[in-house]
Amino acid sequence: MHPHVSSLPLVALLIATLSxxxxxxxxxxxxxxxxxxxxxxxxxxxxxNPYAAGHRGIDLDAPAGAVVRVVDDGxxxxxxxxxxxxxxxVDHGSVRSTYQPVAxxxxxxxxxxxxxxxxxxxxxxxxxxxxxxxHLGRRHGTAYADPVELLDRxxxxxxxxxxxxxxxxxxxxEPVGPDGFVVPVDAPISSPFGMRIHPITGELRLHDGTxxxxxxxxxxxxxxxxxxxxxxxxxxxxxxxxxEHGGGLVTSYNHLAAASVPTGAVVGAGSVVGTxxxxxxxxxxxxxxxxxxHGRPIDPMLML
Length: 304
What we know:
Layout: H1 8-17, E1 40-42, E2 58-61, E3 67-69, E4 74-82, E5 85-91, E6 96-100, E7 102-104, E8 111-112, E9 117-121, E10 133-140, E11 143-144, E12 189-191, E13 194-197, E14 204-207, E15 210-212, E16 219-221, E17 226-234, E18 238-246, E19 249-259, E20 266-267, E21 272-276, E22 287-293, E23 296-298
Antiparallel strand pairs: 1-2, 2-10, 3-9, 4-5, 4-8, 5-6, 6-10, 7-9, 10-11, 12-15, 13-14, 15-22, 16-21, 17-18, 17-20, 18-19, 19-21, 19-22, 22-23
């Protein structure tokens, strides 16, 4: 075999990992948020549509306690806890960067320069448990993009173990989504959307929503503006409120202690529709939050 032939697949792999969006101007490049330069343990995976599964950022390998730095000049837009995860978000003008899980040393409104310290990496709430890693996100308005495209060109060459990327943990979100969606309750995610063994029946089935571990009696807000189309009791879901938002999107709030709105009520984002309970087929106080797009269950966290 010719000595150069065996290297062709490797060359093709390296070329394939480079950004296809063309050269990035120097003034739009990002600095690495960790030092030394980390390995990318899970790449950006663009979802096929705004509500579908995907990986809206990159996961960077680093030990818990590592110093996390801002990638570019900007203003801290948010620093705090969402669904039990510590998050920092920085506005750079036309683009926003997000960092999680990070114990912030900054507050909203702080002006930062590229390389300034934002905080320290936490283990809890990370995407790579039992290891720590930093989830770095990039958003242009409502669109998510690959952070690697703005990082040093060398970032596009990464090594992947033969075992593949680590499994994805429960997703975390910002408090308000690009289309005005909000978290119904500010509580940790106790069980994410997806296949699981049902804790009561023992069957493998789709967990058709996201469980938020809030205390009984906690007010539950509508995730977005809409109209209440059902207030009912379903044996599996207990007391339930269903809100229609238009465009084929419906959300429901399940296992409620009680509903606080009637059918036909018009609600806004954050309007209280009931209180957390443990009615129906439930193992304890929590909110089972569901979303359906044209009748098909989707991960409600992807709306935020």
